[in-house]
Amino acid sequence: MPFINRADAGRRLARQLRPLREQNPVVLGLPRGGVPVAFEVAKALRLPLDVLVVRKLGVPFQPELGMGALGEGGIRVINNEVVRAAQLSEAEIAAVEERERAELEARARRLRAGTPRVPLADRTVIIVDDGIATGSTVRAACRVARAHHARRVVVAAPVGAAQAVKSLRREADEVICLETPSVFFAIGQWYEDFTQTSDEQVVDLLRRAAAWPITVSAPQQGAAAVGPTDRDEDVRLAAGSIDLAGRLTIPSNPAGLIVFVHGSGSSRFSPRNHAVASALGAAGFGTLLFDLLTPAEELDRAHVFDIPLLATRLTAVTGWLRGQPEALGVRIGYFGASTGAAAALWAAAEPGADVAAIVSRGGRPDLAGGRLAAVRAPTLLIVGGKDELVLDLNRKAQQQLTSDSRIDVVPGATHLFEERGALATVADLATDWFTEYLAKPGSSGSA
């Protein structure tokens, strides 16, 4: 499971939401499961926390079909197209609204327990839930927030169904979701502990949040620099005719720059890659996590396994990174996972490839095929001991590599390295490999 519990998910989500702190937003948790996640976000960023209590108005004879939503303060949002299609009368709408309004007000009183509601007018609001299945509740929350005159609406969740997340981009100004798996059955499958959140827990979290000091940031032009050559910012990366989204972090005097190449069904928000990136950052490396595909392209599974396309994107992004002032004279490494490892090896086999070392986590180097023999960069293949099929594919692929290479097997680990301590082992192995080869002159074709 990617997340230990909702608190763990919230802490990871907070790292991706940090740039929004400059907008002095308010964090809104959707009761009840979204509140523990939102609490950790608000605590990490020292922002105000509130709940956004909403009730979906369902069509009387088809309750799962939303015809509108209700929010506190008398907010009522109606979808006139649905009302017309369902041929509903004012009396029928009023009956549903009366029932749902009573439930909303009772629930709001219960959860707030005297805590005042935070005004949303002219604010950036970050709506947080523990996951997005169909997106109907979050969609209603977006509309309620706008009815409260929010200036900007951002949806944030640890995990969500890909199609639901895509549809929410039409409702929110921005959607940030750490994991958007192509196969999605239930939110709970992505948590080790998905214990139900109680009303009492929500009340306690709101009270605790009301007591902490709030960080107020002055408006800034562009990204904030923490040092003369430091960067920690969202970036747009040119790759041919399209732009890709990424997150670039470069410390002063970096030991090297590591480009993360995620696998199928993942993104730049991958919590596993972020865990490794954090460890590399602590060791003095800069990191770049980016999306290899646009949101529209991700919906076509053929793109996910189009290794030449992914490798071409990676080569273009590497060229962009090499053009940054902070990258001058700094060696570059690739960290690939799943199909991303194949793309990393494919790109590294190109003549003049600017890569000094490669690490693969649970990768599919076999998908690089005949390109493996042309790879010059030293390559570490990390595989879980219980990931038997992938381990066999890695062993066969290593036989085709002519560069320095090694297979490290993490005992007891499965494909996602979700076992206790497994991902930390991956981070340690990767850090050691990059430390050795990115500081070694002439270890690859990089300048």
Keyword list:
single chain, 447 residues, alpha/beta, Rossmann fold, eight-stranded mixed β-sheet, five-stranded parallel β-sheet, disordered C terminus
Structure characterization notes:
With 447 residues, the protein is an alpha/beta fold. It has two domains: 6-211, 3-Layer(aba) Sandwich (Rossmann fold), CATH 3.40.50.2020; 231-437, Rossmann fold. The chain has 14 helices and 16 strands. It has an eight-stranded mixed β-sheet, sandwiched between helices. A five-stranded parallel β-sheet has the order 2-1-6-7-8, sandwiched between helices. The longest helix is centred in the N-terminal third of the chain and has 23 residues, at 90-112.
Q: Topology of this protein?
A:
Blueprint: H1 6-17, E1 26-29, H2 34-45, E2 49-51, E3 54-59, E4 62-71, E5 75-78, H3 80-86, H4 90-112, E6 124-128, H5 136-147, E7 152-159, H6 162-168, E8 174-179, H7 199-211, E9 231-239, E10 242-250, E11 257-261, H8 271-282, E12 286-290, H9 295-298, H10 301-304, H11 307-322, E13 332-337, H12 339-348, E14 357-361, E15 379-384, H13 388-398, E16 405-410, H14 422-437
Parallel strand pairs: 1-2, 1-6, 6-7, 7-8, 11-12, 11-13, 13-14, 14-15, 15-16
Antiparallel strand pairs: 3-4, 4-5, 9-10, 10-12
